[in-house]
Amino acid sequence: MEEPGPDPIIPAAPALSGQARRDAALRAARDMAALCGLDLRHFRYPGREPDPKYGPAALTAACEVVDLFGPLGPGDGPHGQDEALHGRIRAAYAHRTWMARYKALNAAFLVHEDGRSIPAPVSGQEALVLGSVPFQHLQITPCLDGGRLLLLVSIGYMPVGLFHPVERLFLVLTDFRLDMRGTLRTVLEGFLLRPLPWAGWLRRATRGGLRRAFLIGDNRPSHYLRQSLAYLDEQEAAILGFGEKGGMLLVAPDLCAMDPFAVFPTLASLDRLSVGSDRLTDTVLLSGLDAHRVYRFGGYPDAAWLSVRLAPLIEGVPPGPSGRFRVMISLDAERQRVVNAVEAFRYVLRRLGAACAAAGLELEVVWDGWTLSGPPTPKDKEVMGRIEAMAAAITEGLEVPLAEQMRIFGRSAAGKVPVLARCDLALTTRGTGAMITSWLLRRPTITFHHPRAGASWDYLDRSTVTDVDPRAIGEPPADDPLAARHQRFTLAPWGLEEALGRALEGRLALPPLQEATL
Q1: How far apart are CA 57 and CA 62, in angstroms?
Q2: Which tens digits make up the pLDDT trace of 366-386?
Q3: For residues 43 and 59, is the Cβ–Cβ distance under 8 A?
Q4: Rounded to the nearest 10 degrees, how much is the dihedral formed by the CA atoms of 437, 419, 446, 351?
Q5: What is the pTM of this model?
Q6: Would you state the pLDDT for residue 196?
Q7: Which of 17, 189, 203, 397 shows its CA 20 to 30 Å from the CA of 241?
């Protein structure tokens, strides 16, 4: 096969070290500056004197932002006055129109189809997709509109904006409320400060030299469990075909709240690479990958499909001792939102202990509050240490006998499932813990949250959830040192008592309680 000729946009840069690498970095910065129509000083390279006038923040401030959907408005720049441009943006990126295009792009990627493109509103033409690069929670998709470079910035299926470096223009493409200039600055920091790997990636991309990699992972566990895994379930056959044609899987384990290969063992046979999220962008750039990710998109109305996939994991666990009542308590030791957590959950255990004693049952408690997808970091260890300390404080001097205490904080989501599937009751804030017990396992779950914190039902099974009465959610004391953090609140015992009664109705009776105790 004939070797492709020199790329006219980004010349080749071989692997180098020392002075040769510094020279290559400078050449890459010059090439990138020429491609983007920007002053060389906007890029970082050896020997460059730091100058705030050419940093990402300064370039962000100098860019024209056209926001037809949000608070920034169209602006006073030349593109802000272009009604024809505005019409093209609205037509091409209207939700229904874009979703049809997005689904087509996903399908074309999996079958290794060439010539993928997106609408380029400024020119009114189609811009050729070069590939996709993950960056933090964003996806950056460089495109060529003729000879001009564009950067599509997206989150999941949602197109956030289209950056035109030559024009210093950012077109906002969504009505979702984001700090658009802050988002643009984040993108520019990742793009301008690494010219050498970006130049190499663009060189390969324009020569058709990228290898396609389907990326699995989402920094939001609830989105990952409900949407990313659902897409794998829907497209399992297509992804297997993708791998057979030379595609690979790229997995960020710390962005996978559940091991995808535990759910889909057939995918484990494909060529795959696992890399931590902190090295994801560099790996994609330096390895020459077109890392397409489908996340925060689609999903099923309930978790029945995932329950079927996890049936061997759930049903393979032998039953525990008879005559026991198992409660899971999730301790929010990271955000520490529940001010009186020790007193509140000590109260819960006392009441459950009394009910179990009256019914001839033994009480066992499962402590949770932190889910890991990989080896624990120093922060993970700190949070788990706080959970351990809180559990010890709750049980210290507790007059209620506990048949067993199980600690599942620090396990993966899949590792928790067998234990939580046997739970008779769970108490947790709205989050991953509630999603597993309620949405996935359909176990009775008591939830509590600050009234001002938006509480979505998207990741819960309403029939299994008992919410603590909002009137029992109190404000933190005036002298609370952490009051400014994470909407802290207190839980009144009467609210817990009432929620326990509703959640346990017909299964376990709470003994009469002196009103003064509440």
Answers
A1: 9
A2: 999 998 888 888 999 999 999
A3: no
A4: 170
A5: 0.86
A6: 92
A7: 203
